[in-house]
Write a structure and sequence with these properties.
The structure is a homodimer. Chain A is mainly α. Chain A is 70% helix and 0% strand. In chain A, helix 1 (24-44) packs across helix 2, helix 4 runs antiparallel to helix 5 and helix 8 (166-187) packs antiparallel against helix 9 (192-205). The structure holds a DNA duplex.
DNA sequence: TCTCTAATACGAGAGTTTATCGCATTTTAC
DNA sequence: GTAAAATGCGATAAACTCTCGTATTAGAGA
């Protein structure tokens, strides 16, 4: 990071892109930058990902790059946030099916599968995630995402078991989502067959009733 | 990273320190560098950790620093490896008590507690871990550590249940250790009281018999 | 169509940080 | 005491990220 003086375009969301440009052309370039960034990360890994790579591949100059994104972390952050949003949609969808206490365990299992398939479909997600772990500001972004996921799970459980105490529920949800994320990130490092086996094992460890929460 | 020409001291372990210097004085400086690095990380976080900070605080010149460590990652790697070794000792000790299948669950619970207490005793471990996650080479170091831990668990189970198939056992052990690490890293972000509650919840999710492995 | 203004684009180079190299100093061996 | 090996040093090369003044382009109004 070098010196910083003025924000030339508009109020930036912390760690994310500057406010969207108004002209059509620039919106296209914005997307082009993100697309190139994704390609480069997929090819070279998050570690070797350089601003100069994006300049070279996208044809967008340094100055322009920094008109769209306040810094390098913002590019990674924008990619991460898009993927996180996809993940949140999966979870929302899988939890929507919970209408009775006994639906919970199957729903958690579906989330495990959704998450695993999402990572397998977009291997670059792993690089993006690693890049977010490397930056304090971006770690917060993932922490916030986890908080939302945890909230979604809490809401689903509350729907079918209103008597569970709030504090217990919050702790349980956060832990469960953390473990699901950890298990899936572990699984994607394995060959697919092993991965399925490991995830099956993991599903048996997920709670299949709400007794522990009472 | 800049250019590299020759390894002036000796064959470096990848990601770690160069081979130990022979003289007493230099061995002391080596430790001094690591001690300062730990302090700086604890104070400023892994993100803001600079080689120039170490030079300033330790009084060791740049050239000398790089005589002991091939690069910045090696300093972090050396710290990480030391902490990992402590963790492995905990696990070894806790698993040594397993002499029958029913000892397994209590042993896993003890590991959870040992790990949590280790992190609480040395908060800088969290920064060191984050720094290792930020570097591809160091990620491997943690992966290797996890492989060892997983192996220790496999050995313990094999001792009391020789009939469990190897492949199943390996998958189970790797998953279990991964989940323990994830749960503990989650817990240390919480206030201690909540953390205990979450870890207690987690322990109930750990398998308490070996039926699932048969 | 022309013109004016704001938005967008540009890239040399400033500012940081990591890492090296050749020479100076200290330790060890004999 | 002296030669050789080990260790110490810091200016500076190299690799980055990010900025700033200027050039170009788009779009609204005449």
């Amino acid at each position: 990071m070098a010196r910083r003086k003025a924000a030339p375009v508009a109020a930036p969301l912390p760690g994310l892109a500057r406010l969207a440009p108004t002209q059509q052309r620039s919106r296209e370039r914005f997307e082009r930058i993100l697309a190139c960034a994704t390609e480069i990360m997929a090819e070279k890994g998050s570690e070797a990902f350089r601003m100069s790579d994006i300049v070279e591949r996208s044809g967008v100059a340094f100055g322009s790059l920094y008109q769209y994104f306040p810094d390098k972390a913002a590019i990674i952050g924008t990619l991460a946030e898009r993927h996180n949003a996809v993940g949140r949609d999966c979870v929302r969808r899988d939890l929507a099916a919970v209408t009775a206490p006994r639906d919970l365990h199957p729903a958690l299992c579906r989330i495990v599968d959704s998450y695993y398939e999402m990572f397998m479909r977009e291997p670059v997600m792993r690089d993006i995630w690693q890049a977010t772990q490397a930056d304090r500001g971006l770690q917060k972004l993932d922490a916030d995402d986890m908080a939302v996921l945890s909230g979604l799970l809490s809401d689903a459980i509350r729907r079918v078991a209103p008597s569970v105490p709030s504090a217990t529920l919050a702790s349980f949800s956060a832990l469960t989502m953390t473990l699901i994320a950890a298990a899936v990130r572990h699984a994607i490092t394995l060959p697919p067959k092993k991965a399925r086996q490991v995830l099956a094992q993991f599903k048996t460890m997920l709670p299949d009733d709400l007794a522990g929460l009472a």
